[in-house]
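## Example record

The block below lists the input lines for one assembly entry, exactly as stored, with component labels intact.
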Amino acid sequence: QKQVVSGVVTDPSLGAPIHGVSVMVKDSLTLTTTDAEGKYSILVKSTDILVFSISGYISAELPVGNNTHLDVALEEDIQSLAELMDVVLVGYGELKRTDLSSAQVSLDDKQVDMTLNTTVEQALQGRAAGVYITQNTGQPDGSVSVNVRGINSVNGTNDPLYVIDGIQINTSGAFGSNSAVSPLAGLNPADIETIEVLQGPSATAIYGSRATNGVILITTKRGKQGDLSIRYGFQYGIQNTPKQLPVLNQQQYAQFTNELHASAGGTSPEEFQDVSLLGKGTDWQRELFTTAPLVNHQLSISGGKEDTQFYLSGDYFKQDGITPGAGFDRGSIRLNVDNQTRSWLKLNLNLNVNQTDDKLTAQSENVIVNTLAIAPNIAVRNLDGSWGGADNANGNSVQYTPYNPVAIANLIQNKYKRRQLLGGVGAEVNLAKELTFKTSLNTNIGTASTTYFVPTYTLGQQANNIANLTITETNSSYWSWNQLLQYNKTIGDHAVGVMVSHEAQYGLVKNVSSGRMGFITTNILDLNAGNSSESSNSSTQSDWAMESYFSRVNYTFRNKYIVQAAMRADGSSNFGRDHRWGVFPSGSVAWRISQEPFMKSITPINELKLRAEAGVTGNQGNGGVYSALTPITTSWGTGFVTSQYGNHNLKWEQTTTYNIGFNLGLLQDHIHIEGDFYIKKTDNLIMKSQLPDYLGTNGNGSIASPTENISALENRGYSITVSTVNLDRNNFVWNTNFNISGFRTKVTRLYSESAIIDRSAWYMNNFTQRSVVGKAPWQFYSYQEEGLFKSVDEINASALPVGSDGKELSVGEYGVWVGDTKYKDVNQDGVIDEKDRTYIGNPWPKFFFGITNTFEYKGFDLNVLITGSYGNDIYNYMRYANSYPNNVNLGMNVFDETMSYAQVATDAQGNPYLLNAGTQQARLVGTANGNNTRISNRFVEDGSYLRLKNVQLGYTLPSSLLSKQNLVKDVHIAIGAQNLATLTGYKGYDPEVGAYVGKSMTANNQPIGVDYGRYPLTPVYTFSIHVEL
Amino acid sequence: CQSDFLDREPLDAPLNENFYQTKDQVLAATASLYGYAWFDYNTTPSYGIGDARGGTLTGTVNQIDNILFETSGASSDNSSAWRAFYNVIGQANRVMSDVEKYTASSVSESTKLYAIAEARFMRGLAYSYLVQNWGPVPIITDNEASLSDTEITRNTVESVWEFVVRDIRYAAKTLSATPIQDGRLTKYAAQGVLAKMFLTRAGISGTRNQSDLDSAAYYAKSVIDNSGASLLADYEELFKMKNNNNTESLFALQWIYNGTWGTQNAMQSYLAYSPEITGFNDGWGGDLGASMFILEKYEAADKRRKGTFMFPGDHYSYIHQSVTNAQTGESTIQELKVPLSNGSFGARAWVKKYVVGRPEDNDGKVLQQRTGINTYILRLADVYLIYAEAILGNNASTANAEALKYFNKVRARAGLSSKTSITWDDIYTERVLEFAMEGQLWYDYVRLHYYSPARAYDLLSDQERGLYTITPVYTGNDLSAEPTSWTISLSYSRKITANSGNFTMPIPTVELTRAPNLLRDPVPYSF
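Predicted structure tokens for the full assembly:
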């Protein structure tokens, strides 16, 4: 005899109905969920027992009996909030959070959605302890430097391994004109269910040879049993322009030019003779920067019956740049399906198809640098509408004056289109009650196409007379096949889990690049439109393979003693036959003290867990075993040269990490503290030594030095997260999450005692960052200033710079004189030369942190995220470059501070002295011997900052309003602001500098913490609405 | 997976152990030694050291450290040249060992020896530049074995010269009389370079060694008599791309305009006075031009001047320029009429040699920073003058008929009168004018400096390296005709002081930081 039972489920503390409670007939598959008003109705027998459950509440069981109406009040369950929901993903499996014995940070979709994220890495900033994030460029889809627990490589990648639904993503690779984009741009952040940042060695070591830089597991949303849910989200944002940097306007520029010429010789343009007649000239920053919109539409449909659940979503995202020549849009579709095919068989499918289009002209053509460097007496457009540019008659230089950046950003096209298919199928077979076999086949197929077109143009006297087009097509494919057995058994107080697995992976990349010149039309960007006799082409291809065997054992006793051990063996094609296999063991123990009987009486402590772990992870580098002959062109057809020495003895780089940590829950988890302290020792670091030139290993035509295992690094650090529920009464909830981390990296060994690893940027006047034993990598390395010379006596008493003959420059107006920069004689040999360069700055922070506060009151919610970094130095190269007075002779501008140059006067006794003694800017000299323009510590600035990263105020429409109709279940609207305010002493646009991603940079030569026209990150104001049907 | 699943050899390049299976493959490996490895030397240090430091080139910005004779440990040409020569050595050593180890038995012994001789020639030549510029330098014969050796010490000047002579002499003995392919080395190219090596080495003890001078004369004469080479009738024709590997060329670096980066000649970008004659956004040489020192040496009749430097008003029918009308903004292409230089740099007699013009002047074989004109290392005129100098030897002057014959051939081609007796000064002046902008003059001073340092310092210190104005003089008022002469007047004098402290270049600073072992006293090389 069936009957319909209905009723309302409520939360007595709020007096409000609970939506989404699962109402299930015990020991059956019959199930429903409550609607927005907490109502349910279900067909049952009178003998049935109904189970009402939802995470966060204590489940209730009620016998049906003769009732047709059953109202239920569910009690909130603080404990369950922490535990029930908290099954966390770990490598190749999942664990109850309480059973975790390794350091791991979790983010859920709510936290991800809190900020506006073009790409997923941005969501991690300030959220995850131990993860140091800097956005390398503020352009849309700008790449992000992600350092998990310090620096693990001196000239290889520091990017963590990303694993999206089990698919390992290879992120290394893009340099040159595409270096500025995120490799994860195709992933729709709204699809993300959780992000797990694996940090401890016991957690990461299961990924063996790819885990040294940390592992970030990303899980996407899946359908849940129950009603179909349709969600639509819309976001609209306005990106603001940056604050202006102080460059000279035309009047100041003219006056400065005249003063320079008066003191150092030379003639100014005629118009400069009466400065008062001049206007302000072109404000290049105002001409370039513009506010820009971003739009995001998201639609998802999910749901399913007991046997099949699905999640289908699509997103369209479009972000314009705040300059021309920048922009990003993405379209993506995801389908995740789970099917209980038989009682013993589950199948699942993940499929993601996405496309991203980037505009990269602003980045690849140094548009920001040139905007700050071009003279203000050049017009953006001439009166006849044509583009303005350098003109000799105005004192510009056709050769040196930057090309009109507004014109270049509009004229040159650098388009980067990526298409990606990311997906996999999996099967899960229940072989026995506690034994499961899982297998998954995953793939990642991508194409990337770069279209780079330079049309003919005329900018004043500067011109490009031949148009050229280069099209580069890259195809990549990847597959992996994994087979895994999982055995879980609980016998009394003992719980054991055993996993064994085998995995094979293969990847292939092919690249074809071709170009032509002599285009007559600028509309058809196809090679055929160019001149076939001026064509070029090239290609590359490479593949790799990896095979792995691994196993993990978990054991818990009475839920309080937890032991885990894992072992992975990886075989990689990156090594020769004798060194192919690497073994990566790890182990951890945890003790939940709070489960001990003696702790039960200490009521304030509801959770206390101590953890200790150790493990080995690896890095397989990028090959280097073989010494191949590279084809090159010669007069007699294809020639072959050796381009790198091979090394058949290359072996795994290995990192041994020791970690201790604790989790402390106080006052029913109103306060939760998690802390970790670690030491990471990396040995046999895979890298190329920087050998002396006489070995023929550097520059064009060289045979590069072999890839070797030649150095060691050490990281020591900590990360602490404190989450608190500050207030939870009268409908008002206030939560805080604070995390702080720090690390110290030290190079502990290089290949020889005198070894140094320099990163020297030829495009930045050979700005050098040096790594040596005993220091963190990539210290700024150059001269130290000691103010300006104030008297001849001081000059005579000081070490002076030397000329090429090793002798000191002469003392006098045309040599070293009062008002010149005094450099520190670091090696105290009595002269200033290259040997006096020293360490002048450290790009790494002492600590960094993030604070999230969330407030909820009735339907309102407010999130405030503050991020910060302390103690890192920035080399403000833009300030250095714009401090060189002679710029104005070349049609280039300078910053305001250059006008405060030292003014030398002569006193009654005929002795020179400084009129403005406080200044740092050397006197104007015409025939510069380069003495006052050395790269020095004057432009090293403190990069510490405190940033109001995000503020978002939202409102959820009350159910009382929505209950009047049946269409819309939930509406949430919000307004927000990102990068709203930044407190910093840094003088550039933005202290979050990251790694340099300009056109000329190469993989192992990327300047860190150097600001040379970084695309600024600016405030964004957003409005968003989310509707659930 | 199967055991070979993890064997992944490169897909886009052969491994050296699988290569060298045919004659073509062996020759393809040595082909790269003719250009690619020399690229960093050729692009700027060739004339930066040879001409700017040597005194024929002046300017205010780009080559200023060389022009002021202040080439330092941080100067880019210094480190580029040092690096490039050792890259040549590294590639040559590698090719030699690969050819020895991997050449298939089906490849003839003569091909194998030819390839080794090519490599030894290149290596010897690179060491000759090293010893002349830096004095004692380390001799590396097996790079791979030396990679981890931090004890490597410089070898004495005498050792390095002996090494150079052995390498080149091997090449001269082993190479064939005719090239295997057009532009490849021959016995006579090697003999010619060997003659020059002997001539320079003759002085290293402080006085000129007669037996080396005799060897120089012997090999030079052999080239003159047996090589079949002859002077081109028209000097200017030497520097057109279409005349690559002409009858006068004994050895030139071989370049391709549209190949892999590093296989092209990029000199035009730095030397051409303006983009208007390159057709691209290069032509950055507006600041560079002939020095007063060399301008004063030209006789009015000297045909070499127009082939070496452009004077305002000069007309070149085989180079075109793009001229923009200031009013309409439209540009037209016309035969080059060299404009008066003004602008921010002042007046120059711009560089003409190795400036070949726009794509349309060269059958399209010009791109930005890319031309295909070969760089002369040795041409017959050089051998003629080497021969004359070897015969002159330690004498104050000579009237030797043979010496005069070849000396006067060079002059005659330049349109100048014959001499009946020649001194060292005559040969020196002829060399300055004949080889200006071919990266040579500096090494003439090095040769002199070995046995007469004071003379070398005097000559260098006496050079006028300052700035000047140059104005064309026209007959009548027809400014469209070619000028008949030019008024050149010094506006700013600039002389340098050469001495024993700054004569050789310092080893690049970065190199010393990486390899402090180079500061140790040089030791003899054990052969």
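The mean pLDDT of chain A is 87. The two ends of chain A are 34 Å apart (CA to CA).
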